[in-house]
Amino acid sequence: MSRQRSALVVGLGVAGMASAIGLRRAGWQVTLIERAPQRRLGGYFIGLFGTGLSAAKRLGVMADLHTRTPKNAKTWDVTRAGDRHRINGFLEQPGDPQGVLRGDIEAALFENLGDVEVRYGTVPTAIVDVGGGAIVTTQNSQTGEVRDERFDLVVGADGVRSTVRRLVFGPHERYLKPLHAMICAFQLDKQVPYFPVNDGHRARRAGPLVVGVSVRGPPADRPLFLPHP
Ligand SMILES: Cc1cc2nc3c(=O)[nH]c(=O)nc-3n(C[C@H](O)[C@H](O)[C@H](O)COP(=O)(O)OP(=O)(O)OC[C@H]3O[C@@H](n4cnc5c(N)ncnc54)[C@H](O)[C@@H]3O)c2cc1C
After folding, report:
1. What domain of life (predicted)?
2. Percent of the chain at pLDDT above 70?
């Protein structure tokens, strides 16, 4: 009988959990390490298009995915003078995207993680290619424990400034392309005054653009599913 192959996935985000579920279903033994001391909740608005929806179906997480597209929503462009003009909102784009929050996707994936060992507060500090696999040194920030383990595969799913990429391929500066733009996204407790509760809006000035997107359901910083014990 062939040996069960082992994978280390670094990062408990959308990419990390999707990889872990896929690998586990393909028969791999999966260990997942996450820098944060516990699962990160919340997140901003995302439009789930056809590719994302079919990935969610293939991963078997659709039943747990909470979508938030509001009913009968309209989107308004607000001029400097305060006039409103009806425009196509983000969720009215071709492709029929579904409104979700990042935390919704992560909650659905986490529900379906299954038999994956998750180690929180743990980061990789060295990765050595040994041909057909890698020896990975990890450190736990809470206990200080350092481990050297061999894995057949290492998946770097640790975000834009990936430590895995830095350890294996070199400094971030070699790979990051600055766009010289900044996005700030946050949730409002209630609708902007004078707009119906489901409606979105857009206000444009010479420089910045402000976009308000309406979503339904509980706030994302409230876990939709309780974390596994
Ligand atoms: C305003 C905004 C709108 C967006 N809209 C869309 C959209 O409409 N459609 C779309 O597809 N995408 C959208 N995105 C992008 C999408 O949300 C992100 O690309 C996606 O969440 C990234 O997932 P990820 O798993 O790759 O990384 P992350 O979500 O960044 O997860 C990385 C995980 O790795 C952990 N980690 C980091 N470093 C280490 C380490 N050294 N060791 C261990 N763990 C580590 C982190 O704590 C984190 O849990 C949007 C992004 C923004 C900012």
Report:
1. Bacteria
2. 94
